[in-house]
Design brief:
Belongs to the GST superfamily. Zeta family. Pfam families: GST_N. Residues 5-86 form the GST N-terminal domain. The protein has two domains: 9-85, Glutaredoxin; 92-198, Glutathione S-transferase Yfyf (Class Pi), Chain A, domain 2 (Up-down Bundle), CATH 1.20.1050.10. It has a four-stranded mixed beta sheet with strand order 2-1-3-4, covered by helices on one side. It contains nine helices and four strands, in the order βαβαββααααααα. It is α+β, with helices and mostly antiparallel strands. It starts with 7 loop residues before the first strand and ends in a 14-residue tail after the last helix. Helices cover 48% and strands 7% of the residues. Helix 4 runs parallel beside helix 7, helix 5 (115-121) crosses helix 6 (123-145) and helix 7 (160-174) packs across helix 8.
Length: 215
């Protein structure tokens, strides 16, 4: 029997950060195996998982004999080692615009609805907390996109900004954010989810999905 040397992605189906990496892998046609890590039953805190990811987070990607953590670092690694179908533009200024949007989404927005943050806030306030901060961040991102967007976040080519935006829109809707206030974000999301890599990376297409679509 041949040894399976495909990359291994430790992932949780509804994790935004895992979703970003899934989309990039699929966009670049990198075949990989998934090992689910159920955050709801604290599998990410097990001794076995902590040994490979001391931050007790998903995703973790094992690739090329290396173990990588932090989704943005993984996305950059995939860009630098798998240059086909790039998700960063070659022009330095355009690339900086993409990275600015990536930061606005992945650093300024997503942590507000991170599971461990919501647990600390408490069930009674967690929904309003997430809705407030996502709405606040989307107001700025919508304005930023007004000067960069074409069919996608920056012009008419899919970039890492789109890879990060789609999971965040999913979470915004789950948290009750009024997306009618953000027509550019909504339009870009609608364009992205028609693409095969985004369809296959969708949470409801994952092997560990535990809920019917739309819940």
């Amino acid at each position: 029997m041949e040894l399976d040397e495909r990359p291994i992605l430790y992932s949780y189906w509804r994790s935004s950060c895992s979703w970003r990496v899934r989309t990039s892998l699929l966009w670049k046609n990198i075949d990989y195996n998934t090992i689910p890590v159920n955050l709801l039953v604290n599998e990410h805190k097990s001794a076995e998982y902590t040994a490979i990811n001391p931050m007790q987070e998903v995703p973790t990607l094992v690739i090329d004999g290396n173990t990588l953590t932090q989704s943005l670092a993984i996305l950059e690694y995939l860009e630098e080692t798998h240059t086909e179908k790039p998700l960063l533009p070659s022009d330095p200024l355009t690339r900086a615009k993409v990275r600015s949007l990536v930061g606005a989404i992945a650093i300024d927005t997503q942590p507000a609805q991170n599971l461990r943050i919501l647990k600390y806030v408490g069930d009674e306030k967690s929904q309003d907390w997430a809705k407030h901060w996502i709405t606040w961040a989307f107001e700025g991102i919508e304005k930023q996109l007004s000067s960069t967007a074409g069919n996608y976040c920056v012009g008419d080519e899919v970039t890492l900004a789109d890879v990060c935006l789609v999971p965040q829109v999913f979470n915004a809707r789950r948290c009750g954010v009024d997306m009618s206030r953000f027509p550019i974000i909504s339009r870009i999301d609608a364009n992205c989810v028609k693409l095969e890599a985004f369809k296959l990376s969708d949470p409801y297409a994952q092997i560990d999905c535990s809920e019917p679509k739309g819940t």
